[in-house]
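#struct-pred
JK: can someone run the complex with pyridoxal-5'-phosphate? inputs below
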Amino acid sequence: MKNIYLDNAATTKIDKRVLNKMMPYFETKYGNASSIHFLGQENDLEINACKKEIAKVINGEANNIVFTSSATEANNLIIKGVMRANKDKGKHFLISIIEHPCVLASARELLDEGFEFDYIPVDKNGVVILEELKNKIRPDTVLISVMTVNNEIGTIQPIVEIGKIAKSKNIFFHTDAVQSVPYLKIDIKKWQVDFLSLSGHKFYGPQGVGMAYVNKKIKIKPIIVGGGQEDGLRSGTYNMAGIVGFTEALKISYKERLEYIKKVKFLRNYFWKELNKKIKNIKLNGSLRDRTPNNLNIMFESIEGEAILIDLSLKGIYVSTGSACSAQNLKVSSVIKAIGVSDEYMNSNIRFTFGRYNNEMEVKYVIKKLIETVNRLRKFSSAKHS
Ligand SMILES: Cc1ncc(COP(=O)(O)O)c(C=O)c1O
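RT: done, structure tokens with the ligand placed:
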């Protein structure tokens, strides 16, 4: 069997239906949406239509949608833009300790500008501790940023409760919802979020297009300036094919949501049940209950996660050790550290994320190959230590 992809939280293969929708924007509908002529104006109308469609899906306002190049850019815009524009309100903000590196790095960058932030800790299951969140709020806290679903361990955060806390204290609330599609029904109003980020390539759309939901009643400073597109919040020529692809992929994801969830849940649960029967000394990182149905993050005692990843890759099986961003630098995952994993297990985790194009036969094959890999590496590891 060739190329089994179990890294769907890193990126997904584009859906053919999405690609077909995008193609005319490379071939015939290539006008710049800011141009005054027909080819441009037609695309300008299309962008507005896409925003309306997305707004319906997420129960928000079309006018608050800003297209970006990625969720990384959306998160940078929201964290830096909101803090920089609201200095009169305060200089303090809160982020969870398990945020994606683009939120962590944006927060750290603001320290140099005199802003201050605190991390909200998580419990051993990887869920933010609401009491700690409440205790860390200060009179000058401007923004709370907590991701909807963690990218490494798939844990679902208590977004509705956090929204309530934020609103009761008159604090702006951002959630990075990148990993939540379509597992959770995004609801801007019910969640009481002011800001939200999404990324097209995580739900079978194209890479290179993201979205920031921005409550335009709140002041925000752009990070990319120039031609003034997106009401001045994000300059740069609109990525037409990307925007159309993003919208189509989001719509399909929610239309086929229940069927999709059933499928990945079945594959994920089957995989986990079989591994437990067939491989000793493995542990799950994060809660099995408060977690999206596509994700397993497993620790394999006495083996390096990297060694498993490379061995599986040689067999044509693609997984990851954590987020795609941490794959380049072999440091310990801050998420794994935050949930209190002991030192001996620290580097021994592998993330398996199931998706639309996986099937039962593939999963059975991966189990077989993984058993071989683990047995071989454990033999090698015990020989090294004896
Ligand atoms: C939770 C989360 N936030 C942000 C990002 C960054 O998204 P993008 O690839 O669009 O920059 C990712 C991607 O790994 C993610 O998982």
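RT: quick notes.
Residues 360-385 form the longest helix (26 residues).
Residues 70-72, 100, 102, 147, 151, 176, 178-179, 199, 210, 323-324 surround pyridoxal-5'-phosphate (CB under 6 Å).
JK: thanks, will look after standup
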